[in-house]
Amino acid sequence: MSDKLAKYRSKRDPKRTPEPIPDAPSAAPGGNAFVIQEHHARSLHWDLRLERDGVLVSWAVPKGLPADPGTNHLAVQTEDHPMEYLTFHGEIPQGEYGGGSMTVWDTGTYETEKWSEREVKVVLRGERAAGRFVLFRTRGKNWMIHRMGAPVRDPFPPVEPMLPLARVRLPKDVPAYAFEFAWGGRRLLVPIDGGRTDAAREHPWLRGLAESFGSRTAVLDGEVATLGGAEILLFYDLLYDDGRSLVREPYTARRAALEALGLAGAHWQTAPSWPGEAEAVWRAAREQGLPGVVAKRLDSPYRPGPSKSWLFIPS
Ligand code: MN
Question: How far apart are CA 186 and CA 188, in angstroms?
Fold first, then answer.
């Protein structure tokens, strides 16, 4: 009988990695467990492993399970893993194969509808990973994973920002607005999907932010401003959160969801907002040499393009 774990063992040194390294596949094959691990290795990916004949047949999926049947994701087949890997989580030392932190993203059982050399069709029964998926081989180790059935999240909103209209005076109906500083920076929408963002092409430091989201999807709205000589991204709105579009929600709900993310880092911050405080914010903006304030209606949805629900008042 061929040793299904020979390749797995050859890549690992038991003295250097905390991963399980058994001598043989499971003595009790026939189960139908699966696990998906989130693996912050050199490049973030999710490892999908399906129990099959005493081992875990494995694929590395760079963007994780697709949420939408219209978008297939690459899945690169990796060596079979031992059954002991089903519950493995921990820190694989840097420099070792797969170095980085690994957590269990989801686990459960699955049902096989088809299993061939080129096509694996399964129904996953986990808490986060649920539904029918088909993996199909495209070339060599490369497969694609496709979700069957309905999308499990809203489509991403358009990436056109909402813009304020300029006014000379602060609005009279002060309690209807939140007041924010106008930063005079460059507007930036940051869509995050599969731990990655296209905005990192222009700003490579955004890779860390996107990776910290893991599998959580988001579209953030903000501005890259220069404060005290340093570039910083100030976030002031959230258009999409964890599979759900927020553009129809009022400002107050979007703001609460943004604050719940607790975004604070060396390169990014959540911009402050003061509901119902017009004069003091306007004076502070002027004292700090900022261009002015933006008044945002508390009950207003997010509408791409110029909108009278947002007012820019220069300082
Ligand atoms: Mn991996």
Answer: 6
Domains and CATH numbers, the chain: 6-148 (no CATH), 162-314 (3.30.470.30)
Half-sphere exposure of 101 (CA within 13 A, CB side): 5
Burial of 299 (0-12, 13-18, 19+ CB in 10 A): exposed
Distance 298 CA to ligand 1 centre (A): 44
Ligand 1 geometric centre to CA of 54 (Å) = 20
CA 214 / ligand 1 centre spacing (Å): 14
For 213-242, what is each residue's pLDDT tens digit? Answer: 999 999 999 999 998 888 999 999 999 999
pTM: 0.91
- Shortest CA distance to 253 belongs to which of 293, 297, 223? 297
Ligand 1 mean position to 238 CA, how many Å? 31
Pair 190, 267: CB distance under 8 Å: no
Q: How confident is the model at residue 2 (pLDDT cuts 50, 70, 90)?
A: low
* Residue 269: Cβ-neighbour burial (10 angstroms; 0-12, 13-18, 19+): middle
**What Rg, from alpha-carbon coordinates, does the chain have?**
24
Match 């604050």 to its residue by tokens: 259
pLDDT at residue 28, as a whole number? 82
Q: Encode pLDDT of 130-184 as tens digits.
A: 999 999 999 999 999 999 999 999 999 887 999 999 999 999 999 999 999 999 9
Q: From the CA of 7, how far away is ligand 1's center (Å)? A: 15
Ligand 1 geometric centre to CA of 107 (Å): 15
How far is the centre of ligand 1, averaged over its atoms, from the C-alpha of 43 (Å)? 9
252: exposed, middle or buried (Cβ count in 10 Å: 0-12, 13-18, 19+): middle
Q: Do residues 231 and 224 touch, judged by C-beta distance below 8 A?
A: yes
Structure tokens at 234: 């100030």
